[in-house]
Amino acid sequence: MKLSYYMPTKVIMGSECIVNNKDVFQELGSKAMIVTGAKSAKVNGSEQDVVTALKAVGIEYILYDKVMSNPTIECAYEGARLAKENGVNFIISIGGGSPMDAGKVIALLACQDIKEENLFSGKYENKILPMVHIPTTAGTGSEVTPFAVLTNNKAQTKMSIGTPLIFPTIAFLDAKYTKELSKTITINTAIDALSHAIEGMISNKSSELTNGLAEQSIKTITECIPSLNIGNLSMEEREKLLYASMVAGVVIAHTKTTAVHAMGYSLTYYHDIDHGRANGLLLGEFMTFTAKSEPELIRRILNAMNLNTIEDFNQILDQLLGEKETLTDEEIESYSEKCKDTGNMLNCPVRPSAKDIKHIYKASMGK
Description:
The protein contains 14 helices and 8 strands. By secondary structure, the chain is α/β, with parallel strands linked by helices. It has 2 domains: 10-177, Rossmann fold (3-Layer(aba) Sandwich); 182-365, Up-down Bundle (Dehydroquinate synthase-like, alpha domain), CATH 1.20.1090.10. The strands form 2 sheets. It has a 6-stranded parallel β-sheet with strand order 1-8-5-4-2-3, sandwiched between helices. It has a two-stranded antiparallel sheet with strand order 6-7. A hairpin with a 4-residue loop joins strand 6 and strand 7. The longest helix is centred in the middle third of the chain and has 23 residues, at 208-230.
């Protein structure tokens, strides 16, 4: 049996875990930069909890709250300049995938002079600021992965940085920060986590260890689907989703993602479709494609959800997603060309051909 497992992030989960573990911040430095978006961290109380903890242990901080949805390369460089100018020792990222991914790249750029054209090269010095990540959505799992996705406007797509350097040092998980999320965001982020777990099992980099974790994540998310549909989650269910998202993040930290993510990036870039929703729109047809070569693997995924067929799976997604967006034949042609040679495609047990990719798009979203 071949196995490789590495998870350097310390995860602390529970109610009031930030304030109750405030001394942890002292291990990282004397001055922090909080990286977040403009509003959500203020509304859900996570930013205030961080500030309270920092003040209690005498740590200075500055705030960079300009991270937009699907953060750009320019956003990361701007944050890094601010960190350098202010002598920041460590980064605290608060939010969904966007602030957490931006925070990773800011931590890297604050220690290294990397030209934009080399940002996605994978070749970096062994220098980075320590990071604390605080997810306020239950979907991305970025708090435990060595990946960061940025929008590259020059290439007109989203691109990923992958290096063990950007594993966060510490992750704080408190489900109370997800309490005020809208039904739509809660569903989209849950689908994102589900997609991570399923793609992790399909990936040719999977192992029995990651498959066991993925099944646990899938089962936990499945338990919450009835409440997701009606938009009425208990705090216990929100904790389950946050936990399942983190576990799915651990999975893809080792397996990476597959064609679903590669195909979904154009949906997000050109149509402003939320990342998790984009995955959900494509996931069923990708499973159908995979079932042709890996029927027992798809059966194992369905068993984790207590389902018999992919059609049953699609019915669940249809309920969660509602009315679907559509693509023209021209858009399908363009997006297929953009994603066919990406690294995610190499993670599939059978690499989809250009014809296969077009079919998945067409069957999922064609007019």
